[in-house]
Amino acid sequence: MNKLLLGLLLGAVLGALDGGTAWFYPEVRAQMVGIIVGSTIKGLIAGVAAGIFARKVNSVPLGILFGLAVGFALAFLVAYLQHDHYVAIILPGSIVGLLVGYATQQYGVMPGPANAR
Hints:
Blueprint: H1 3-20, H2 32-56, H3 60-82, H4 86-106
């Protein structure tokens, strides 16, 4: 699968799972839909960024580091805006970025040239 498409899909799925983990915090259960949507968007952004990076740089360690950095930055931004639950937001968000960075480098393929007819 194309590196960008893989990052997009995997980022969305892992982001939704990341948002679903908010269920374990009873004080935010009333906001679950917004949390899942926001985490999915955060995962999409991290996935697209990792996919674009994977197209430019062919290195698994650098892809993991880049994905981790993007996931951390996005999650930190969300946690900072919430002023609460820093670890509970940043840790899974960083893991999503790490996994997407790894997957796009390891399993994504470069798109082939278009056939001219």
